[in-house]
Structure formats: structure tokens, C-alpha cells
Amino acid sequence: MFITLNELEFPSHIVFRLSMFQTPIKLPVFLPKILQRLLFCLMAGGLMLLFVASPTEDNDMPANFKPFPCFMDADDDNTDDSIIRLEDVLRADVKPTQGKNIFFHETSCHPPGSKYIMNLTARQACSIESAALHNPNFEVFVLFASPTYLPGAERPKLPLIEALQSYENVHLRQLNIWRYSKGTPAEEWVNKGDLFDSSYLKEHVSDYLRMLSLYRFGGVYLDIDVVVLRSMENIPLNYVGAEEPGALCNAVFSLDSTGIGHEIAELCLKDFQENFNGQGYISNGPSLVMGVTKKVCNSTSIEEIVAEQRNCNGFQVFNTTAFYPIPWPAWRRFVEPQYLNETLEQTKDSYLIHLWNKVSYEMKFKKGDDTAYGKYAQEHCPKVNAAADEYF
Asked: Count of CB atoms within 10 A of residue 30's CB?
């Protein structure tokens, strides 16, 4: 007779991490409980060494960090010539430059053993191309939080990725969350592992990383479901925008690498740690940015700040026209032909549009349709539009 791990009273996070890899560990039921626990600890320790023993730069991984399998380094000793691992953003020859960056983050969970090959959607690729096309003097970094690969010479090419790689200012990279956090105000907090207990892991890792990228390098963060309509290079760094008069959104967030921008990034990281709520969908994102903005603007009213389009000590708060001219409940205006002219008129003064992927992701848009999104794709991401299949 055997007893499984779930029948023992071990910490749930240990069992969860092992169960993700479907590790079949069974212990003889006749062993005394203390020996069962000891045997389990020895086996679990050996398994966890497999997850954390990946090579690190100058042994820079902290000894006390709590690993989470999705975001660990892949094995550098890859012998599969058919795949090419993305470079780490901190180890690559081309790194972000202070302030002249546009960041996109992809935070889906892919354990190292999965050998995940990049699979951007046409909409995501359109977001990236539109940013690179209209901002040639900015370096566009697409950062993957999980180990990610490109197909090698023996595998079919990915037309959307090739379209993006034709831009000299587009850089596809991966990052290691613990290494990326090292030397920042959030280093010790990330090592404790609270972030990975989130009920909205993908979203909260994204909320965290956008603040961390802006803290480390400065520049502009964009959600990967936007379409950039014109250059953003001439907007002074340090801004955020309203999605409605009384609410800000962090899908577009810009901070400089020095001065007030760096101070705001540090305030955001501090707030994220002190008030992290793994059960609240927007608690660590839009709500956090609104709280920090109130402090910087010395105001209790977001609506008042937005109405006045305040520049708070060098931090600009834009109204809805800048980034969110179409509110999320009306997202279908982008993809239904009857709204074409009205939507183009509403967005003519905007820097970009936000497609609200949270509510629109299930709907496929036919390429070339006479819709606002169809027009945006043809004009603002022409290479991706040409490379895409029938639907976006």
C-alpha cells in the first residue's frame, strides 16, 4: 500500500510546484510519519535543484529566492539545433538605452522543459510593428518572462516574426524575473515569492514588470493589444492617460530614467510590495497608478487631474483622447463596418488605440475588412498585415 503526497500535510505551494510537472511520488504508508516527511523532503529537494540549478550570470541568483517553474531559466546546454533560445535582455549585446525604449511584455507561463516556441498573434505583432514603424529612434524591446525559443534552420519560418525582425529597432528578448529584479527596491520582496501566489499570475507579473522595466531603463511601456497611430518620440517622457474621466489606465505608461520619472517608478515599486493583493485583478495595476498619481499631483481627485490635463512636477496626465478614445464597452466599434467613419473620426487625434483584449480576444477580425481596425492594420502595421493569415 502507498500514500500519495496529497494525503500528507505538506505545504500546498510545494505540492503545487511538483504537480505542475506531474511528478509521480508515492511513499510507503507503513513508514512512520516522520520518516515519510524526511523522505519527501529529500526527494523534493532533489527535484527543486533541477529547477534552480540553471546557469546564472556570475552566480547572481540569490540564495534565498523562491523559484516558480514558469519563469526559470532554460537549460543553456540545449543540443536541439532546430530551436534557438532568445537572449536574456541583460546579457545581450544590444540592451535598452536610458529613456529611449518602448517595452512590450509577454508573461504567459511556459516552464523551461516545454521548449516553448514563440507564437505571437497577428494582433500582438501589429502592436509591435506599429510602435517600431512610428518611432524609429526608439528601441522596441519585446520581453518574454518565460523561456522562449525561435525556430531554427530545420523548422518552418514564422512569417509574423520575420516581419518584425525586418525592423532594426525591434529586439526579441527574454528575462529572468529574479535577475531582472536584482539591485532594485523590489529585489528582496520578489525573492520571498509572494508575487507567485497571485490568482491572476499573468496579469500581476505584467503589472510588476512594466514598473520594473521603467525603473531600470526608463521609456514607454505599451500593452501588446494597442496600435500606435503616430510618433510618440516628441512626447516628453513621464505620462499616463485616462480611460475615463475618473480613472487612469496603465496600458500606456511612460517614465524617464532620471528625475521625477525615476522617483515615480520607485514609488510604484514600493506601493506594489507594500499593498500587493493577489486576489484583486486591477489592484496592483490601474489602482496603484491612480494612487501614486494622486500623491505626485497632490490631489484626491483623478477626475480633477484629468479635466485639467495636469502636468504634475513634470508628470503629464492625458485625457481619454490620447490613448483610449474608444472605451472598453464600445470596443466593437473597431471591428464593425457600420462604425468605420465614426471611429476613424474619434481617433484622428489619438496617439494610439487600445483594443481591450480582455473582452475582444475571442473575436476574429477578417483581414482587409472595411473596418477601423482593418484600416489601422493596413496603414500602421503593413508588413504584419501582409504576412498575417486570413484573420487577425
From this structure: 10
The DSSP output letter for 136 is T
Classify the phi-psi angles of 115: left when phi > 0, otherwise alpha if psi is within -120 to 50, otherwise beta.
left
Q: Which regions of the chain are under pLDDT 70?
A: 1-63, 65, 74-79
Q: Residue 111: its pLDDT value, please?
A: 85
CB neighbourhood size of 98 (10 A): 13
- What is residue 74's predicted lDDT score, i.e. its pLDDT? 66
Task: Return the pLDDT at 241.
Answer: 97
pLDDT reported for residue 10:
36
Cross-strand bridge partners of residue 222: 252
Could you tell me if 193 and 186 are in contact, meaning their C-beta atoms sit under 8 angstroms apart?
Answer: no
Where does the chain show beta strands of DSSP type E? 2-4, 26-28, 83-85, 101-106, 139-144, 149-151, 170-174, 219-222, 226-228, 239-244, 247-255, 311-312, 315-318, 352-354
Instruction: Name the pairing type of β-strands 247-255 and 219-222.
Output: antiparallel
Q: CB–CB of 210/103 below 8 Å?
A: yes
**Contact criterion met (CB below 8 Å) for 92 and 130:** no
Residue type (1 letter), 338: Q
Three-class secondary structure of residue 139 per DSSP: strand
User: pTM of the predicted model, to two decimals?
Assistant: 0.84
Task: Round to whole Å and give the CA distance between 107 and 146.
Answer: 7
- The full 3-state SS of 19-65, as one line of letters, equals HHCCCCCEEECCCCHHHHHHHHHHHHHHHHHHHHCCCCHHHCCCCCC
Within 166-200, where are the H helices? 177-181, 187-192
The residue among 118, 343, 107 whose CA lies nearest residue 227 is 343
